[in-house]
Design goal:
Strands 1-9-8-5-2-3 form a six-stranded parallel sheet. A three-stranded antiparallel sheet has the order 4-7-6. The chain has six helices and nine strands, in the order βαβαββααβββαβαβ. α1 crosses α2. By secondary structure, the chain is an alpha/beta fold. Helices cover 30% and strands 20% of the residues. Bound molecules: 6-phosphogluconic acid (6PG). The site of 6-phosphogluconic acid (6PG) has 15 residues, from loops.
Length: 244
């Protein structure tokens, strides 16, 4: 496994610009190889700035007709719900670019955790089946201050995932929406690049723990440290979040 790379940027805006730059670069590589480009979007608040830059095209344009969009996780709510990751991505990016509707592979959270996860597992398998090298190009991830990523929360364990690519998840009691659907580490590993976006002093201690655990094969109690990729895991963090 290739050692994760950590890039420390001045502030959240610089993190967003660098993430957009790396995504556009990966899309150009796909285009140069006459491949479609698959981008897995993260939820939460940090990625919004990246999506706005991709929508504006200031870091370069993605070739949207050959781009497929997937999601790393979703809350079990309708797509127009205020807490929907799809709604956030639609408002900040997907409604502003010429992407074909059938190339946006939404997690149907409204179907509930079991049916929605089962359906997305099938979706992921069909996307991977036709993807070159059976790999997703870029998976975007965030990290919570508790060490979660996507909707892989501490205490979930990983033994039950087996060969599954999407599973139901339960968020901690403090979360607004408990029932979730998430990609498994196995699905995330089917990627050329994983790009983590972590900003803010409140994540500094956890980031240090997760980066250290990731260097030693991962710690199941820190799901963000369990993520691998067939290619490169990159951490884009700001100075406030970086341990040193
Ligand atoms: C979600 C995300 C979640 C998020 C982290 C960080 O559905 O909320 O998948 O894993 O990436 O909680 O969120 P922030 O970017 O808002 O800090």
């Amino acid at each position: 496994m290739i050692e994760p790379k950590v890039f420390v940027l001045d502030d959240p805006a610089a993190v967003a610009r660098e993430a957009a730059r790396q995504i556009v670069f990966a899309a150009r590589v796909a285009d140069d190889h006459a491949r479609s480009f698959t981008l897995v979007l993260a939820g939460g608040s940090t990625p919004k700035a990246v999506y706005r830059i991709l929508a504006e095209g200031t870091s370069g344009l993605l070739h949207w007709p050959s781009t497929h969009i997937l999601f790393g996780d979703e809350r079990c709510v309708p797509p127009d719900h205020a807490d929907s990751n799809y709604r956030m991505a639609h408002e900040s990016l997907l409604s502003k670019v010429p992407i074909h509707e059938q190339c946006v592979h939404r997690i149907e959270g409204e179907r509930g955790p079991d049916a929605g996860a089962h359906a997305y597992d099938r979706t992921l398998r069909s996307v991977l089946e036709t993807a070159p090298d059976h790999l997703l190009d870029v998976v975007l991830l965030g990290m919570g201050a508790d060490g979660h990523t996507a909707s892989l929360f501490p205490g979930r364990g990983f033994a039950g995932d087996g060969e599954l690519l999407a599973v139901p998840a339960i968020a901690p009691p403090a979360s607004p929406i408990k029932d979730r659907i998430t990609l498994t580490p196995k699905a995330i590993a089917c990627s050329r690049h994983v790009i983590y976006l972590v900003t803010g002093a409140e994540k500094r201690d956890m980031l240090a723990r997760v980066l250290d655990a990731a260097k030693h094969g991962g710690d199941p109690s820190l799901p963000a440290s369990m993520v691998t990729s067939a290619g490169q895991v990159v951490w884009l963090v700001d100075r406030a979040a970086h341990p040193d």
